[in-house]
Write a structure and sequence with these properties.
Strand order of the largest sheet: 3-5-8-7
Number of helices: 0
Order of helices and strands: EEEEEEEEEE
Radius of gyration: 22 Å
Helix content: under 10%
Strand content: over 45%
Structural class: mainly beta
Shape: elongated
Length: about 120
């Protein structure tokens, strides 16, 4: 590179290290498959989203009126040392008979119970 009549040279050193992943841990690839929130009418309904992880995800709800089911959809190769899968998360909300809006949460956790993603559920 020439700057103010002088020649400058740059050298780049790139170190590449392979990430060592523990096959006993759950790793999530959190992308646009997970919403931040979902809204349901008072009648209740079912909505789907998905998460990508190397093992069966741990997904729980904060209330008894939200029911979760999980289904393996497909294997996804992300180039890592572990196999990753796309998991469908089916969120079923029962009818709201309280005549008041209500709110609950869906938590996606790791094997230690640490919350990795939260989905807010609102119902009329």
């Amino acid at each position: 590179m020439n700057f103010l009549g002088r020649n400058f040279y740059a050298a780049y050193i790139i170190d590449v290290h392979q990430l060592q992943l523990d096959p006993n841990k759950i790793y999530y690839l959190l992308d646009d498959g997970l919403p931040e929130s979902m809204h349901f009418s008072f009648l209740g309904n079912t909505k789907d989203c998905y998460v990508v992880s190397n093992k069966h995800p741990i997904v729980i709800s904060s209330t008894d009126w939200i029911t979760i089911s999980i289904e393996e959809m497909e294997k996804i190769n992300k180039g890592a040392s572990l196999d990753f899968y796309k998991w469908g998360i089916n969120c079923s909300v029962s009818e709201n008979r309280t005549n008041k809006e209500r709110m609950g949460f869906i938590y996606i956790q790791d094997e230690k119970g640490e919350i990795k993603h939260t989905i807010k559920i609102d119902q009329d």
